[in-house]
Amino acid sequence: MHLRGPSKALFLTMIVLIAGLLTSCGGGDQSGSGSQQDGGAKQGGGAKEKKGNAPEKKIALGTIRFVNPETKRFTVRPSTDEQGEKPIVFKLAKKAKITLAGKEVKQEDMKKGQQAQVEYVVRNDNNRARSVKLFESGGSGDDQGGGEKTG
Asked: pLDDT tens digits, residue range 19-78?
């Protein structure tokens, strides 16, 4: 009977050790050989970027619907179906750059109805605009449709 107790303990210990070695070896081979040598560090860092300092950059295209310089917020109604129909709310990041016809402008120069391209990131469920490119009005769609509206 003394042989059974130690034999079971030794057997279970060996199983745990072997399972641990197999698990760590398999994981090490996958991340070590392909990721680091083939430039996979960027791919491996993708999950960390979302949690860390560099969130994924996104771009929204559409028409400005609301601007509030006091709160540094504005909304853009997307022009693509992929982004939905509801306006997207943005807050300007501290170092955000707003341009109109290639020249830097302030948020006060943003007008309702202007076309905009917003480069932004999502932080804490808030859209932070890092770059806003405004386009001068006079585009083909707004001017033609404007003459037909009566109120």
From this structure: 666 666 554 444 444 444 444 444 344 444 445 567 889 999 999 999 999 999 999 999
Rg of the chain on CA atoms, in Å: 28
Whether residue 122 is found in the same domain as residue 81? yes
What's the CA gap between 32 and 47, in Å, rounded? 17
Strand ranges for 1-151 from DSSP E = 57-68, 73-78, 88-100, 103-105, 115-123, 126-135
Cβ–Cβ under 8 Å, residues 74 and 66: yes
Q: CA angle at residue 105 from 99 to 117, to 5 degrees?
A: 30
Question: Does 148 map to a domain?
Answer: no
User: Does 70 lie in the same domain as 113?
Assistant: yes
- Burial of 93: CB neighbours in 10 Å, binned 0-12, 13-18, 19+: middle
User: Residue 31 corresponds to which tokens in the numbers above?
Assistant: 């991340």
Among residues 112, 74, 104, 113, the alpha carbon closest in space to that of 91 is found at 74
